[in-house]
């Protein structure tokens, strides 16, 4: 069984990756705002 710490680290890494991907897509509106949301979540 995976403990809570491992789950939180995994979710944090995923949120960070999504933030970087979102920031690097110039065609998406509000990408900076979305980046800020995900990076703070990470």
Structure description:
- It is a single chain.
- With 42 residues, this protein is mostly helical.
- The protein has one domain.
- Helix content is 74%, strand content 0%.
- It is built from two helices and no strands.
- Helix 1 packs antiparallel against helix 2.
- The longest helix is centred in the N-terminal third of the chain and has 20 residues.
- The model has no long low-confidence stretch (mean pLDDT 92).
| Number of distinct beta strands | 0
Residue windows where pLDDT falls under 50 for at least 5 positions: none
Helix content: over 70%
Helices and strands, in order, run as HH
- Structural class estimated from helices and strands: mainly alpha
Strand residues, percent: under 5%
- Morphology call: elongated
Main sheet, how many strands, which sense, barrel?
none
Total helical elements = 2
Q: What is the gyration radius calculated from CA atoms?
A: 12 Å
Spatial gap, N to C terminus: 23 Å
Mean pLDDT, rounded to whole units?
Answer: 92
Q: Could you say how many structural domains there are in total?
A: 1
Keywords:
elongated, 42 residues, mainly alpha, 2 helices
How do the helices and strands line up, and which of them pair or pack?
Elements: H1 4-23, H2 31-41
Summarize the structure.
With 42 residues, the protein is mainly α. Helix content is 74%, strand content 0%. It has one domain.
């Amino acid at each position: 069984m995976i403990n809570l710490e491992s789950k939180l680290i995994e979710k944090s890494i995923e949120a960070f990756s999504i933030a970087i991907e979102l920031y690097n897509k110039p065609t998406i509106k509000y990408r900076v705002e979305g980046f800020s949301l995900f990076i703070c979540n990470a």
